[in-house]
Amino acid sequence: MYKALLATAVAATLTSGAAIAQVKPEILVKQRQAVMTLQGKYFGPMAGMAQGKIPFNKDVVQRNAGYLDNLSRMAWDGFVDSTKDVKSAALPAVYTDSAKFKEAASRLENEANKLYQVSRSGDEAAIKAQIGAVGKSCGGCHESFRAKQ
Amino acid sequence: MYKALLATAVAATLTSGAAIAQVKPEILVKQRQAVMTLQGKYFGPMAGMAQGKIPFNKDVVQRNAGYLDNLSRMAWDGFVDSTKDVKSAALPAVYTDSAKFKEAASRLENEANKLYQVSRSGDEAAIKAQIGAVGKSCGGCHESFRAKQ
Fold first, then answer.
1. Distance CA B60, CA B75 (A)
2. In terms of CB atoms within 10 Å, which end of chain B has fewer, N or C?
3. Residue pair B38/A72 in contact by the 8 Å Cβ criterion
4. CB–CB contacts below 8 A, A to B
5. Out of B1, B66, B149, whose CB is closest to A139?
6. Residue B30: is it exposed, middle or buried by C-beta count within 10 angstroms (0-12/13-18/19+)?
7. Is some CB atom of chain B closer than 8 A to the CB atom of A122?
8. pTM here?
9. Residue A90: helix, strand or coil by DSSP?
10. Structure letter (DSSP) for residue B88
11. CB contact under 8 A, B45 and A74
12. DSSP bridge partners of A146
């Protein structure tokens, strides 16, 4: 299993671009899509709570916000030029307007980290407001950089 | 985007089995496979370092170990009975021998958490030994509960 992982992912998370380039573009796309899937898994219930559609549960929010704080930093090294031609919902602007894309990515990281912090307070109103801010940062990026679903 | 997430993931992470059951089995499988994909992304380079195949990098290990500590807890609520008939590499034993499966899952969580702790120490030999222990806990579970790849 050690070896199987090495074959596909050995250099995926090194910080140098050269190392990232060694990972197959299809794998990079699969990995970044996996992050989006899990962000949905953990953000979805919090969005439901903020909108009053499901009961507020402080413990679930604290756990999910902690996971989301981590996940919000995992996708971005997969949006590299080598992946441009792999079929996905990413719009060309990801690669042509990378400064704006990076800004949108940082916004999610910052808002998710704030949610993690505020989730520790147990202040329901503040938590719900910050869940809204995270949702806006998701939507803001999708608006410009993801094909309409 | 709020609404799109709600449609697919609203109850995925609530702790009650009843809530989990509301999420489509195919989504649960997609989510747990996403966790495995990302565990590979972040464990792969650490395995390479432990085996001397790529240079040891303390900063990468600390980051990856932190991510893996989180990821190691994300997959298990997706291995529920409703997913039994969805095509995946999970063997029937996941559902028929759930006590042993849970034990194997806990082993990964514990070893990944230990790796996170030891990664803070900067002790290269201890870190490499613990990377090996994490690898064994991955392999141990795959041996009994995943179809041969």
1. 23
2. C
3. no
4. 142
5. B1
6. buried
7. no
8. 0.89
9. strand
10. S
11. no
12. A90
Yes or no, beta carbons of A31 and B37 under 8 Å apart: yes
Would you give per-residue pLDDT tens digits along chain B (149 residues)? 444 444 444 444 444 444 544 899 999 999 999 999 999 999 999 999 999 999 999 999 999 999 999 999 999 999 999 999 999 999 999 999 999 999 999 999 999 999 999 999 999 999 999 999 999 999 999 999 999 98
Q: Could A6 and B37 be called an inter-chain contact, meaning their C-beta atoms sit closer than 8 Å? A: no
Cα–Cα nearest to A67, from B116, B68, B11, B25: B68
B140/A44 Cα distance (integer angstroms): 32
Nearest to B3 by CA among A65, A138, A76, A33: A138
A64 interaction partners in chain B (CB closer than 8 Å) = 13
Residue A83 per-residue DSSP state: G
